[in-house]
């Protein structure tokens, strides 16, 4: 099979699929599955990315029981991993006895970075740029009058000097309030627009002009109290011990934070936001103080209840991008009932905390495999060909035998069918 296909990008989606079908020797049934697009029809998908030949589906679930700032929410989650939706729902139910989740968030300020290289006099350039801060702000804000009209736009300018293998560089930050957008397009446009003026002020040459996904000025926070009468004093002690494992060990901390992102990514994807940007920002923030740390914190309060908190950058939007292009993303925002990007970020933070609590509780008190493998066994049973009531029967037996494999599931299925 060759991958050098002249003119591939000029073909229609159907023609591209035919070409791939031929080269990869796909069956007609496989080709038709790729064409089965669901709610995201081919025309929309073809506008979203390049070289489209189909769409890819993930399960879409609803986490229940969430009460955030005394308001109830249904949480749409798109994820393929078993137990995540159930875990978040259970954690939210247990948190209701303690008042649910309380949240807050920063203003939606993103950082646009302009790299200046070859600056002859760094200190003098820094001073001159800051002396002309207002002119820089005005120049940037002329690029998006609509954003400014709604209270957004560049609010401040910062200048940083960094040392690199290529030499010293001057990095200018535009602090842009992007309102209800994620903000990449607006920020990048502003950074491009001011860079010639910054060259003039600094005597250097412009390099990269790009948004940063480490959105330290756009953080969301959530807090919940799990009552000792609800989850048990012993469970609280084990959860705190498990949390401190993550505090003291980067190997564990990485998986700890991955569990948080299980919940966060699922909502970010469901609402059409950029989960790669959220992931990179979250993990970078985890190392912001110099060592990689948990994004959550757990402790006991004076009553002996478990208090969990989370803080992380959450640059999400409710306008622009695939939040308005993908019809399912629009439905997700309607199910959530959020009115602003700030509210959406706070809901997502609460889901991240709930999912982390659920994962730690399962690990510390039950063992992760108990719930997770029950769901996994059902998937194996379906892969083996089980349908209807046979799915539960096959799943139960392979769990009891501790032999959760497709081959054993097929053997059990044949025995049950006799």
Structure description:
- With 418 residues, the chain is an alpha+beta fold.
- It has 4 domains: 8-48, no CATH class; 60-103 and 219-366, 3-hydroxy-3-methylglutaryl-coenzyme A Reductase, Chain A, domain 2, CATH 3.90.770; 109-212, 2-Layer Sandwich (Alpha-Beta Plaits); 370-417, Helicase, Ruva Protein, domain 3.
- The protein is built from 18 helices and 10 strands.
- It has helices at 13-24, 28-35, 42-48, 84-96, 122-131, 133-141, 145-149, 184-202, 228-231, 233-248, 250-270, 275-286, 322-325, 327-336, 341-366, 368-383, 389-400, 406-417; strands at 60-68, 71-78, 101-105, 109-117, 153-164, 167-177, 205-212, 219-226, 296-300, 306-313.
- The chain has a 4-stranded antiparallel beta sheet with strand order 3-8-10-9. A 4-stranded antiparallel beta sheet has the order 5-6-4-7. A two-stranded antiparallel ribbon has the order 1-2.
- The radius of gyration is 25 Å and the shape is globular.
- The two termini are 44 Å apart.
- The mean pLDDT is 94.
Task: Summarize the entry for a quick read.
The protein is of the alpha+beta class and 418 residues long. It contains 18 helices and 10 strands. The protein has 4 domains: 8-48, no CATH class; 60-103 and 219-366, 3-hydroxy-3-methylglutaryl-coenzyme A Reductase, Chain A, domain 2 (Alpha-Beta Complex), CATH 3.90.770; 109-212, Alpha-Beta Plaits, CATH 3.30.70.420; 370-417, Helicase, Ruva Protein, domain 3 (Orthogonal Bundle), CATH 1.10.8.
């Amino acid at each position: 099979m060759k991958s050098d296909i002249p003119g591939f990008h000029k073909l229609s989606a159907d023609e591209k699929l035919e070409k791939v079908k031929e080269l990869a020797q796909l069956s007609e049934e496989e080709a038709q599955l790729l064409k089965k697009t669901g709610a995201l029809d081919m025309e929309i998908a073809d506008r979203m990315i390049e070289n489209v030949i189909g769409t890819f589906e993930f399960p879409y679930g609803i986490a229940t029981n969430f009460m955030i700032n005394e308001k109830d929410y249904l949480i749409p989650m798109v994820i393929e991993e078993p137990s995540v939706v159930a875990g978040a729902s259970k954690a939210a139910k247990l948190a209701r006895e303690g008042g649910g989740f309380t949240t807050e968030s920063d203003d939606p300020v993103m950082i646009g970075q302009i790299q200046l290289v070859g600056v002859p006099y760094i200190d003098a350039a820094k001073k001159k740029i800051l002396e002309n801060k207002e002119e820089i702000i005005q120049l940037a804000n002329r690029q998006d009058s609509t954003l400014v009209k709604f209270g957004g736009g560049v609010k401040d300018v910062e200048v940083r000097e960094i040392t690199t293998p290529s030499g010293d560089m001057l990095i200018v930050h535009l602090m842009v309030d992007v309102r209800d957008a994620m903000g990449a397009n607006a920020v990048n446009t502003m950074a491009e627009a001011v860079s010639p003026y910054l060259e003039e002020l600094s005597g250097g040459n412009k390099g990269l002009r790009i948004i940063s996904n480490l959105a330290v000025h756009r953080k969301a926070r959530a807090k919940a109290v799990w009552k000792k009468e609800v989850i048990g004093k012993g469970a609280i002690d084990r959860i705190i011990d498990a949390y401190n494992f993550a505090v003291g060990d980067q190997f564990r901390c990485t998986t700890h934070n991955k569990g948080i992102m299980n919940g966060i990514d699922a909502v970010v994807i469901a609402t059409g936001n950029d989960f790669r940007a959220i992931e990179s920002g979250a993990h970078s923030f985890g190392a912001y103080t110099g060592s990689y740390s948990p994004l959550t914190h757990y402790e006991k309060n004076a009553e002996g209840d478990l208090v969990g908190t989370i803080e992380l950058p959450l640059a999400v939007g409710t306008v622009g991008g695939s939040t308005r292009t993908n019809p399912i993303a629009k439905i997700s925002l309607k199910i959530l009932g959020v009115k602003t990007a700030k509210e959406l970020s706070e809901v997502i933070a609460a889901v991240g905390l709930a999912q982390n609590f659920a994962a730690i509780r399962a690990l510390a008190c039950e063992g992760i495999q108990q719930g997770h493998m029950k769901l996994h066994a059902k998937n194996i049973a379906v892969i083996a060909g089980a349908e209807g009531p046979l799915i539960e029967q096959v799943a139960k037996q392979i769990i009891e035998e501790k032999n959760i494999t497709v081959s054993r599931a097929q053997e059990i299925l044949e025995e049950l069918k006799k």
